[in-house]
Amino acid sequence: MDRSLYIVWYDLPEKDRKTHLDWLHGSFIPRQLKKSGVLWAAHYECERQADPVHKILSYAAEPVPDGNEYILLFGAETAHAFAPPAPGTTDPTITDEDRKMLAMRVGARINTFTEEACVDGPAAAQRKRGKELSACIQLGSFNTRAYQDEDGLLAWYAHNRLPGLSITPGCIGVRKMVSVAGWAKHGVLYEFVSKEEREKYFRAYENADPSMAAWTDSLRRSLVHAPGSANVAYRIWPPVK
Q1: Domain residue ranges of the chain, discontinuous segments joined by +
Q2: Span 178-207, pLDDT tens digits
Q3: Nearest to residue 73, comparing CAs of 102, 103, 110?
Q4: Is the model's pTM score more than 0.70?
Q5: Options 3.40.250.10, 3.30.450.20, 3.50.50.60, 3.30.70.100; which CATH number does 4-237 get?
Q6: Which helix (H) or strand (E) element contains residue 29?
């Protein structure tokens, strides 16, 4: 099972986009997929229009890389598939061309997550675990303001968010994740059938139960998000059929 995710958020200069994307999709990703334990890859372009919820979220004041145009994800059996080389060694699969292309990224922010809990949604049959993600995702990455808020976050996902999305039309599934490496301690990945299904049903779910909506509003005030979180993004590789 793909219980660990390696995620990169980043921007690209306009002049370098085609060159970088051709290399990424045609060369780099296929080679990374040959590594032991790595099961799949998926590349997304983020929605440029800010989600209304961004207006009520708090964001990191400390310097955190703020790339948000693209999201690259790899799934693996465990986080150790993404471990860097041992001290004094280098990754033999990274070429000089790779280093040149990777240097094109602007504001790259990286997290390695492992799965805390997950639920299937009503549309779960539209994909199988262990393969690339859905056509539309929503990805949040954040910390609590204080460690005392951690129990409240745990309770909210266990009793509110995950049960609610498990019965929300258009939802394929949700994964709550915790960090192995990276700025954000917490991550949450939502998979939806399409942009249209997310827009139609996700907000309706959030507003259906006033008591739950009040809990959600209170919970949000206890969090500090990475720049741009939560991202809504659409898959560009593998191409959506």
Answers
A1: 4-237
A2: 999 999 999 999 999 999 999 999 878 877
A3: 110
A4: yes
A5: 3.30.70.100
A6: helix 29-32
